[in-house]
Structures are given as C-alpha cells and as structure tokens.
Design a protein that fits this description.
10 helices; alpha/beta; nine-stranded mixed β-sheet; 2 domains; TIM Barrel
Length: 280
C-alpha cells in the first residue's frame, strides 16, 4: 500500500439547468431551474429530495439567484420534504416560485404545509397539472398552473383551461410545447406563459465552487443545530473556511437583493440568513 496520500480537490464544478418561460409577446418572463449532475446532461439523472436540494442550494450559494434569473421569475421544483417543513427552504419568500410536483400526493399534511408557505409569502405553481381530487385541493393557493401540452387532446386541454379560469389568481403555463401547433393552441386558450422545445431547450450553467473543509462543516453543523446558537460564534466558525464564507455571502446577498445593498460582514450575512437556512 502506498504511503502517498492524495489530497481531496479544493474545487469542484457545480451545474444547474435553466429553461426559459416566455410571455405572450415572446419575451423571456422567467426560468425554471433544473437538476443536472454534469455539464452535458440533457435531463436529470436522479430525482427526489436530494436533486431538489442540490438545485436550491446551488442556485442560492454557488451561482447567486440574480445570476441565474436576473430580474425575472425563478421556478424551482420542491418535493414533499420541503412542502411539509422537513427540509428548510434556503431562500426567503418572493425570490422564487415553488413548483409542487405532480408526484406529490396532496394529503392533509401537504395542504397544511403549502397553506403555511403561502401565508409566509411564497408563490406556488402546480406542475404537470391534471384536474383530480388531490391536485384540486391546491387551486385556491396556487399562483400558477403548468399544463403539459404534449400528447393531450385539444378537447382535454380546453376543458382544463376553462376549469382553471374559475380561479382568477391563476396564471396558466403551457409546458412541453414542442410544436408550433401546440404553441398556437396555447395562445388561443389564453395561456399566459409558454415553455418547451419549440421555444428553447434547457441550458446547463456551470460554475467552479470551492470545496469546504469537512471538519469545519461538521463543527458548523453542531453549532447551528443548537437553537440558542450565538451568531458571533457561528460567523467565526464560517470565517475559518473560505468556501463556506463565499457560500454564505452569496446566499445572503441573493436574499438581500431587494434591499439594494451588499453584505460584506460574515456575521451580518449569518443573521440575515438565519439558523434554518444555515442548516440547509
């Protein structure tokens, strides 16, 4: 066995997919952020809470949301764990629209979780919406409904659009618009936003991120899991590691974009982010 020990890399590449949504005039109105495990990936190689959390954390700590979506709307998929509060969201209300995946059964716990998120100011989109007793429970809470245009008969799409119009706050999003005919139908049915290969394919963005020290990360986790954690002590621990410092400052400045000021103090950044988002 060799005595040579290979040091772990100090940097690694982080990837996030981004697919635009267009308004009725053909201008980019927003972007959906997607999990991508590598730069050349066409689609997500894995799904679930891990992939979702990777997109959320990367968007807010590695890229900065303003770099990914600028002043447009950002849509991010969230799984049940985020909706019911088992995993904390790493950003404040108003920074992104939460997409409730069609694979999430809307039971009482999910309904209560989504209600709480909306009460806190988060906007909700229902992804790949189909009118059934489960998904319909969220229509009063949602701001967007995304309807799959691929392989659905025009009569069904028309019926879906008519039923959704009963809820005045809803904006209809046509997704998987792959042909000019589908785009024309979505316009005819009054959809507000449009997303699909007929308009633009997802683009993979890559950035180089510093790898934080495992030891520092473990010490920091122990600190932030204490409800009475001292923010000065937390900031001191973060400051020991350049990677964690960069992540925290990027996340805090994404969160404070509406304040029109740049945070440079690690302690101020930690206070703004708060313990829940620090844990995430």
């Amino acid at each position: 066995m060799s005595d040579n020990v290979v040091a772990p890399p100090t940097t690694h590449n982080v990837h996030v997919g981004r697919q635009p949504l267009y308004d009725r005039a053909g201008a980019v109105a927003g972007y959906e952020l997607l999990f991508r495990g590598e730069a050349g990936a066409v689609s997500a190689s894995e799904q679930g809470a891990y992939a979702t959390s990777q997109v959320l954390v990367s968007a807010f700590t590695e890229f900065g949301l303003e770099h990914l979506v600028a002043d447009r709307i950002g849509f991010v998929n969230v799984t049940r764990e985020f909706l019911v509060g088992e995993l904390p969201l790493p950003f404040a209300p108003g920074q992104a629209v939460l997409e409730v995946l069609e694979t999430v059964p809307v039971d009482d716990e999910v309904l209560a979780g989504v209600t709480a998120l909306v009460d806190r100011g988060y906007q909700i989109a229902l992804d790949d919406f189909q009118f059934n007793n489960s998904s319909a429970r969220l229509l009063d809470l949602a701001s967007y409904v995304k309807i799959d245009m691929l392989g659905i008969p025009p009569s069904i799409l028309t019926a879906l659009a008519i039923r959704c119009r009963v809820y005045p706050r809803l904006k209809l999003v046509a997704e998987r618009v792959d042909t000019e005919e589908q785009l024309a139908l979505a316009h005819k049915l009054g959809f507000e936003l449009f997303q699909g290969y007929a308009l633009a394919r997802p683009q993979v963005l890559t950035t180089v991120a510093l790898a934080p020290s495992r030891l520092t990360t473990l010490r920091l986790l122990a600190l932030v899991n204490d409800e009475d954690a001292d923010m000065t002590e937390v900031a001191t621990e973060v400051s020991q590691d350049p990677a964690l410092t960069v992540r925290l400052l990027k996340a805090a400045n994404s969160a404070s974009a509406a304040l029109n000021r740049t945070l440079e103090s690690v302690r101020d950044a930690a206070v703004l982010i708060g313990l829940n988002q620090l844990r995430q």
